[in-house]
Amino acid sequence: IKRALRHSFLPQGVNQSYYHFMKWRIFQRFINSNLHVLGTQSLIMGLGIKSAKTLGISAALTWVLKDALGKVTRLVWASKMGRRFDSDSKRWRFRASIVYALGNYLEIVTYINPSLFLLWATLANSCKQVAMLTSSATRTSLYNSFRDGKRENIADITAKGEAQIAIVDLCGIAFGVTLSSLVGTSIKSVMTTYFILQISEIFCLFRQIQGIEFTVMNFERMTKLVDGF
Q1: Is 160 helix (H, G, I), strand (E, B) or coil?
Q2: Topology of domain 17-77+86-223, per CATH?
Q3: Pairwise CA distance, residues 2 & 23, whole Å
Q4: Which residues lie below 8 Å from residue 61, measured CB to CB, with a gap of 6+?
Q5: Which residues form the Protein root UVB sensitive/RUS domain (predicted)?
């Protein structure tokens, strides 16, 4: 059983920094899943969907519109910033986490200020689209640093990483549903829970990328080295 689990969830041909990365990524994604539940609950309450009877055409159109505008933002971000991610993948990955955290916060704001639901929800979705694009764009560069140099196994590292995260996300969502029922609908309770979870997630992500070691210098360090001569 142990061998089967290892074969299913752990890639071969990786260095020790991979295990440091995945340990903190598991913690980070578990917390992120809790935040996702909290944010979705806030969006639904902000939209006023407290029962099936209140779900009308207007609410559905508003929900679709905020997603569509978020996709447009993602498209613009990709066209403007796509070439910059390779120069400093770690820093861009951390910046993405900050932007995603802002998106989480704005989802909570939709519950606090539902009269401007479309504005806050669109901004929240736009932040998340930008963050997810940035995270996806830098992932291959980060994963490439985990290779032990003996084989080309980026696809294996990526696939096994997604398998791990699928399990963690399911556990996180289940826990998040329980947590949200305990937190209730009090704005103070929701905000307090959000800040605790969000700070914890950012810390985990910082520790996650802290252990990544590249074999090549990024643009900033190369510039400093050249200036030194």
Answers
A1: helix
A2: Growth Hormone; Chain: A; (1.20.1250)
A3: 18
A4: none
A5: 4-228
Q: Give the pair of three-digit tokens for residue 11.
A: 């890639």
Structure tokens at 60: 């559905």
- Say how many C-beta atoms besides its own lie within 10 A of residue 201's C-beta: 22
Phi (first) and psi of residue 122, to 5 degrees: -65, -45
Give pLDDT tens digits for 139-148: 888 888 887 7
Q: Where are the beta strands (DSSP E) in 38-187?
A: none
- Is the distance from CB of 18 to CB of 156 less than 8 angstroms? no
The sign of the dihedral angle between the CA atoms of 134, 138, 140, 143 is negative
Please give the structure tokens belonging to residue 176.
């998040």
